[in-house]
């Protein structure tokens, strides 16, 4: 059991300063991680990105996996504006659609998508079980699921060490360091995620610890 309790952070990133700080972060590594997972599971077809944010990862997926179309959802109008501009600049408006929607109550029918993925969105959700249930509902049977997120460290000392290692003051602003610390504090543990996946009725999935701070809930490779 983790000694560090989960402390929620805002579900919707609509603060202009925080949105700009987040948008300015390096999105290359998480994009590579998501693309690698999707490719390893032979993902293609109609995809749903839960939490499109500024669109960096969504665009990266579309560029790397050319036989796909993507619907990206977010609750933040500010993030949707950012993503729309970035999608247009990448000439991908014909393959990526950005929509305002709640990941806990998606406006899509059962089994509507071949692939459902997200990156570091789950820890923003106060009721993560609701998001997982919706992700599973809109995924077609035998579809591909990739939910990548941070995991909560066991102690405050370990959290501080992770922030110092991955968001050093030499290249990160105090606000960016604070955002990482708050996100780690808001995240689930791998065991908590496994339990929630079971409660959501998911089968044929596994939780993989990917890095010293990231975990992935994904369909088991076939």
Report the average pLDDT across residues: 93
Can you summarize the main beta sheet?
Answer: 7 strands, mixed
Q: Give the termini separation.
A: 31 Å
Total number of helices: 8
Low-confidence blocks of residues: none
The side-by-side strand order for the widest beta sheet comes to 3-2-1-4-5-7-6
| Alpha-beta classification | alpha/beta
What global shape is seen? Answer: globular
* Radius of gyration from CA coordinates: 16 Å
- β-sheet strand percentage: 15-25%
> Could you state the order of secondary-structure elements as H and E?
HHEHEHEEHEHHHEE
- Helix % is 40-55%
The overall strand count is 7
Description:
A hairpin with a 4-residue loop joins strand 6 and strand 7. The protein has 222 residues and is α/β, with parallel strands linked by helices. The chain is globular, with a radius of gyration of 16 Å. It has helices at 16-24, 28-40, 56-64, 77-89, 128-138, 156-166, 174-186, 190-199, and strands at 45-50, 68-74, 96-100, 113-119, 139-150, 205-209, 214-219. The model has no long low-confidence stretch (mean pLDDT 93). It is 40% helix and 22% strand. Strands 3-2-1-4-5-7-6 form a seven-stranded mixed beta sheet, sandwiched between helices.
């Amino acid at each position: 059991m983790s000694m560090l309790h989960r402390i929620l952070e805002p579900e919707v990133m609509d603060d202009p300063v925080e949105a700009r700080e987040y948008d300015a972060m390096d999105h290359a590594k998480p994009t590579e991680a998501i693309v690698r997972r999707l490719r390893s599971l032979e993902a293609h077809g109609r995809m749903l990105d839960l939490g499109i944010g500024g669109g960096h990862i969504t665009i990266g997926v579309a560029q790397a996996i050319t036989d796909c179309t993507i619907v990206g959802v977010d609750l933040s109008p500010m993030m949707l504006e950012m993503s729309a501009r970035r999608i247009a600049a990448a000439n991908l408006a014909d393959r990526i659609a950005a929509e305002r929607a709640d990941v806990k109550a998606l406006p899509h029918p059962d089994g509507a998508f071949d692939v459902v993925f997200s990156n570091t969105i789950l820890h923003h959700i106060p009721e993560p079980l609701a998001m997982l249930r919706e992700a599973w509902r809109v995924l077609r049977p035998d579809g591909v699921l990739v939910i990548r997120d941070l995991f909560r460290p066991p102690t405050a000392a370990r959290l501080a060490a992770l922030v110092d290692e991955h968001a050093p003051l030499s290249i990160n602003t105090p606000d960016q360091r604070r955002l990482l610390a708050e996100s780690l504090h808001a995240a689930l543990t791998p065991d908590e995620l496994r339990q929630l996946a079971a409660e959501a009725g998911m089968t044929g999935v596994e939780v993989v610890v990917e890095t010293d701070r990231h975990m992935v809930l994904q369909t088991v490779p076939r």
